[in-house]
Amino acid sequence: MKSKNLNLYMNILKVVLVAIGVVSCLLLFNGPDINGDPKEVEDFRDGARLGFASVFTGFIVFLGIGLILFFFVVQLISNPKKTVLSILGLIAALVIYLVFWAAGTSDTNETLQLRHPVDQATITATSAGLWTTLVAITVGLLAIISGFFTRSIK
């Protein structure tokens, strides 16, 4: 198969998936008012429109996960050195997340003034994720700055 044809097929696939997603969203937007008749809401929840949107979303998520894993295996075979470095980066991020998760947080539903209270475990996990992201952004910015100065010195 020629690369030119592959690009054409991939563009067609993208347009089709986006069109199906838009139609799915329109089906959901035309659903019943949540504060309306409970019978109508229940019928919508058990109906084909919400079922179609849920199945399509699940299909897209699992397709994405499958493609990520496929790409990972291909990269591991074709470029193992860089892929192993990427794996080490993911492991480092996991370790940082687990350290922040184990440390916990002093935030509670009351201190966050949440309108809809959540489990303390949810607050702890979210806080750990935010701190992990902050560390990753800081390390990335430091790498950019140090790279700039390293190139300037040479």
Would you kindly provide a written description of the structure presented here, covering whatever features stand out?
The protein has 154 residues and is mostly helical. The protein has two domains: 1-78; 80-154. Helix content is 83%, strand content 0%. It is built from six helices and no strands. Helix 3 (48-78) packs across helix 4 and helix 4 (80-103) packs across helix 6 (120-153). It is flat. The model has no long low-confidence stretch (mean pLDDT 89).
Number of strands: 0
* End-to-end separation: 46 Å
What proportion of the residues is helical, as a percent range? over 70%
The gross shape turns out to be: flat
Describe the structure in brief.
The protein is mainly alpha-helical and 154 residues long.
List the helices and strands and how they pair.
Elements lengths: L2 H27 L8 H8 L2 H31 L1 H24 L5 H4 L7 H34 L1
Helix pairs in contact: 1-3, 3-4, 4-6
Which features characterize this protein?
single chain; 154 residues; mainly alpha; 2 domains; 83% helix
